[in-house]
Predict the structure of Sel1 repeat family protein.
Amino acid sequence: MNKSIGAGTAETEQWARRATQDGDAEAAFLLGRHHVNQPWTTHDEAVAWFERAAQGSDPEMLWRITEAYLEAEDPAAREWLRRAASSMGDPQGVAVDPDTFHLQLDDDGTSIEGQEWSVKVRSDDRRAVLRALGTAEDRMFLVDENGQEHADEDAFFAAQEARPEDDALFTPDDVGVNADDGDPELYLDCQDAPMPMMARTLIRIIIEELRAAGVDRATLYTPSTS
């Protein structure tokens, strides 16, 4: 969704009424995105609108807020990604650790440097997990930077051809499964680029394949690099 709010005070007030009086989560999101991109507004103003948007919508909104902060190069994207990742899991089934596919910040915590692109699966059924990750591996080659999973290579190339030459879709350069000792790991070569919507779809795929393989309880997590 590419709607945006103009700089005029009257338009901002109109969207604010929709967000507060009508409980319009989309209006609250647009106001948050507007404030996070304006140098004269405070961080707290953006947070207040984004929190309202998150409370009045489904978990997908958490990913959109993460991306909005990322587009503004705001390190707050890291915490919103943690919330978004954990929202996809089921504590009584397949849980997702908040730091799965976490964003990397600089030493000062003021700048986003990249994103971790590996995930491990902790489960008592190692054989089923490896089977699930093997199937997930094949699907992940067709997930683009916007989080769209293409049906097959023909569908991907059709989408690629529809875009300008200087705006090619990015998909993982490589995907693999590490079956050595310890929890099975799926890793991707995404050039460390931060792409929260891709991360969202990858988590969904892993959960789907774990369930299809009969894994009832598991935890997805990305090991800390610190």
Summary: The first helix runs from residue 9 to 21. The radius of gyration is 19 Å. The chain has a mean pLDDT of 91. Strands lie at 94-96, 103-105, 112-115, 118-122, 174-178, 185-189, 218-221.
